[in-house]
Specification:
The chain starts with a strand and ends with a helix. The protein has a 5-stranded parallel β-sheet with strand order 3-2-1-4-5, sandwiched between helices. It has 3 domains: 129 residues, HUPs (Rossmann fold, 3-Layer(aba) Sandwich), CATH 3.40.50.620; 123 residues, Alpha Horseshoe (Serine Threonine Protein Phosphatase 5, Tetratricopeptide repeat); 165 residues, DNA Cyclobutane Dipyrimidine Photolyase, subunit A, domain 3 (Orthogonal Bundle). The protein is mostly helical and 472 residues long. Helix 5 links the parallel strand 4 and strand 5. The protein binds flavin-adenine dinucleotide. The site of flavin-adenine dinucleotide has 28 residues, from helix 9, helix 11, helix 15 and helix 17. Its EC number is 4.1.99.3.
């Protein structure tokens, strides 16, 4: 028997349900091979950027090395996934296909079609819950409905037993020969017609595990409550690109968070762990709502917000993208995004509020820009974060409007983060940096823009438009 494990956003051998099950079902006598398909429709969607592809290639390189070390191989194909799967399945006489499930509407449809096509040619297909600890359809309100609000979701979610991680396999058996198969070697970034000009964090499974251990075995998780909101501090795990590409399994992450309870010395330490777990639950909340309300992927959840009179001024949008709005905390955050492919969560909320409530620009433009730039860009979390910020989602109350200057004073009190990303503002006093109103002659001298809008005027305007939509 020959089993294929179709990897998509689970680029690891540890804690991998599809791989473990392939070995359990055919591994003893049969062969287990990994497969990754480069789908041109995803690569050429106009949103995917070279940085993300480059990060992914690093993950795939390590995954292939791991497969080879264990005695098998990870195969690569380029093309439409269903046609590719069927042609490989026939070429190697595949008996089984295993994969881990996704929650995105596009992926669910593709997987349903792939399952049917493979079953028609006699392949046994099985899929597994992997992306979250609790499957999106395994949790519901007392009335049996999907959740629309986070807090009751969390209460139920946290009370549910969580699955244990699955150990990485020790050995695999592959094919005797890989000649004449419809597969390609791992392509380079250039061969995929991308370039990347940012310095990437380390990719792959071993880097993910090292990050997780450093965060959970050290003080990171214990100090999370006090540190997580300060973008100048290394107060969060930075695991998000790894969770996006599945270089670490969510059961392994949960196991480490639970094990950190042994290190707790104070209520504050314990709160650190709980709040981090709540963030993991936010991730699953957004997966849950996307799964149940796939229309979220293409528009506002609240009908009133679908016709909101956004003012999509292209110049202002460009200034926001480039970090040239004249609001230092916003600009610092956008430069961090553009230069590293990651942005601190506090800053994501600040820039999203600024785009939607100060510039009154449609959140979907921001959502798309984030997807382009973020290494962790993930439909469920990104859409959830944007709809939360735009007050267009399921839980819009209270109406959230962030004042960039007070956010900066509270979360970057020394202006350290601002100066890290806006070196042209060196020499200004902290008070000037945080005032939200840098003196015009200082802006001019430093070639830094004056504020492109007035926060107070714009927030009044937004509130009026919001009232007019009879939303409250
Ligand atoms: P930590 O604080 O260490 O948290 C651990 C993990 O929990 C994260 O890696 C992430 O997987 C998950 N998580 C944490 N906060 C959230 C949250 N609010 N919503 C969902 N999951 C969360 N996260 C993404 O992974 N991809 C995105 O595309 C994305 N877009 C966002 C857009 C906006 C407008 C906002 C406000 C938030 C967005 N987030 C997104 C959520 C959050 O900002 C990031 O997950 C977090 O900053 C990643 O850093 P970290 O790994 O250090 O997180």
């Amino acid at each position: 028997q020959i089993a294929l494990v179709w990897h998509r956003r689970d680029l690891r051998i540890d804690d991998n349900p599809a791989l473990s099950e392939a070995i359990a079902q055919v591994g003893d006598q049969g062969k287990v091979l990994g497969l990754f398909i480069f789908d041109p429709d995803i690569l050429d969607d106009g949103v995917t950027e070279g940085s993300k592809v480059d990060f992914m290639l690093g993950c795939l390189r390590e995954l292939q090395t791991n497969y080879r070390r264990l005695g098998s191989d990870l195969l690569f194909m380029y093309g439409e996934p269903i046609t590719s799967l069927c042609s490989l399945a026939k070429a190697i006489n595949t008996s089984h296909l295993f994969f881990n499930q996704d929650v995105e509407p596009f992926a669910i449809k593709r997987d349903r079609e792939a399952t049917q096509a493979l079953q028609e040619i006699g392949v046994k297909v099985q899929s597994f819950v992997d992306i979250g600890l609790i499957a999106p359809d395994a949790i519901a309100t007392q009335a049996g409905e999907p959740y629309k609000v986070y807090t009751p979701f969390w209460r139920n979610w946290q009370s549910k037993p969580k699955p244990q991680p699955l150990d990485a396999p020790q050995k695999l058996t592959g094919l005797a020969s890989y000649e004449n198969l419809p597969v390609i070697p791992l392509p380079s970034l250039r061969e995929l017609k991308f370039i990347n000009d940012i310095t990437l964090p380390e990719s792959g499974e071993s880097a993910a595990l090292a990050l997780l251990e450093a965060f959970c075995d050290g003080n990171g998780i214990l100090r999370y409550q006090t540190e997580r909101d300060f973008p100048a501090h290394a107060g969060t795990s930075t695991l998000s690109p790894h969770l996006r590409f599945g270089t670490v399994g969510i059961r392994r992450v949960w196991e480490k968070a639970i094990a950190a309870q042994q290190l707790v010395r104070s209520d504050e330490d314990l709160a650190g762990i709980t709040i981090w777990q709540q963030e993991l639950a936010w991730r699953e909340f957004y997966q849950h709502v996307l799964f149940h309300f796939p229309a979220l992927a293409t528009g506002a959840y609240r009908p009133q917000m679908q016709s909101f009179p956004w003012d999509d001024d292209p110049e202002k949008f460009e200034a926001w993208c480039a970090g040239l709005t004249g609001y230092p905390i916003v600009d610092a955050a956008m430069r961090q995004l553009n230069q590293t492919g990651w942005m601190h969560n506090r800053c994501r909320m600040i820039v999203a509020s600024f785009l939607t409530k100060d510039l009154i620009i449609n959140w979907q433009l921001g959502e798309r820009y984030f997807m382009q730039k973020l290494l962790d860009g993930d439909l469920a979390a990104n859409n959830g974060g944007w709809q939360w910020s735009a007050s267009s989602g399921m839980d819009p109350k209270p109406l959230r409007i962030f004042n960039p200057a007070s956010q900066a004073r509270k979360y970057d009190p020394e202006g350290e983060y601002i100066l890290r990303w806006l070196p042209e503002l060196q020499g200004l006093t902290t008070a000037e940096l945080l005032s939200g109103n840098i003196p015009p002659h200082q802006c001019q001298r430093r070639n830094y823009p004056l504020p492109i809008v007035d926060h107070n005027i714009q927030q009044q305007k937004f509130k009026r438009l919001y009232q007019d939509c009879k939303i409250n």
